[in-house]
Amino acid sequence: MNRAYWDNLAEDYDEQIFSVLRSDDTGKIAECIAQHACPTKTAADLGCGPGQITPLLAQSFRHVHACDISQGLLQSARTRCTDHSNVDFHRVDLTNRKAPPFEPVDFVLCVNVLLTADLELRERLWESITSLVGEDGTLLLVLPSLESALYTNFRRVDSHVRSGSSGEEAVSAGLDHEEDNVALLEQGVRGIDGVKTKHFLREEIIVQLADRSLRVTEISKITYDWTTEFAEPPEWLGPPHPWNWLVIAKR
């Protein structure tokens, strides 16, 4: 949750940061928003970034609160939403214990925000995000999958085995040996492009939400092409594909 880091990325965000919406070939996020759309209800886009999904929320709900830690990203989101007068923009650090500048809403969207390797900050994020889900409200979360990360590791090693490497050679070539912090690895923290990033077990998500009075109604996979994990995927590498978790929970 480093404000300067995200401010520096603001001008080139779309090129540098993986877009869940753009890579969601099955349209699961848009489908879920459509299922919960209501012209009399309110919504929030927490960690909205440059507003890739915010216009879709604005079309689907009476009023939308878009939040991000970066002023530069919020400005990009404002530009994307110039056709929508029903969006308020807030510069908010969701790890801050201060109350957000708006009341809980009917629908909360939060895509790949719970990423920090710091457990204490992550717990604050859980509290902030879930506290903004109003009575009878819905939370749509997208989170990196630890199961998918481990499965990807298997495929990396397997690709070297299939090329004729010995077991030792395949493990050496296929795994990132710079990840030597066992305590972080045991928490599901793994590197993505050199950045320590929290990944989640399915059951872990259910417990975290239940502890905050939210009941999970659906957990499904948003699958991605292998080019998200391999610079040059082998031609034989097909499904199952890597995935993020898409989680729907109700207050």
Which regions contain 5 or more consecutive residues with pLDDT less than 50? Answer: none
SS elements, strand count: 9
Question: What string, H for helix and E for strand, traces the elements in order?
Answer: HHHHEHEHEEHEHHHEEHEE
Principal-axes geometry comes out as globular
CATH architecture: 3-Layer(aba) Sandwich
Query: Mean pLDDT across all residues, rounded?
Result: 90
Oligomeric state of the chains present here: single chain
Structural class: alpha/beta
Radius of gyration: 19 Å
Spatial arrangement of strands, main beta sheet: 3-2-1-4-5-9-8
Predict the CATH topology. Rossmann fold
Q: What's the name of the CATH homologous superfamily?
A: Vaccinia Virus protein VP39
Please give a structural write-up:
This protein is α/β, with parallel strands linked by helices and 251 residues long. It has one domain: 3-Layer(aba) Sandwich (Rossmann fold). The protein has 11 helices and 9 strands. Strand 2, helix 6 and strand 3 form a beta-alpha-beta unit. It is globular.
Write the layout of secondary structure elements.
Layout: H1 3-9, H2 13-16, H3 20-23, H4 28-36, E1 38-46, H5 54-60, E2 61-68, H6 71-80, E3 87-91, E4 105-111, H7 119-131, E5 133-144, H8 146-162, H9 167-174, H10 182-186, E6 189-192, E7 195-198, H11 202-210, E8 215-223, E9 243-250
Parallel strand pairs: 1-2, 1-4, 2-3, 4-5
Antiparallel strand pairs: 5-9, 6-7, 8-9
Helix pairs in contact: 8-9
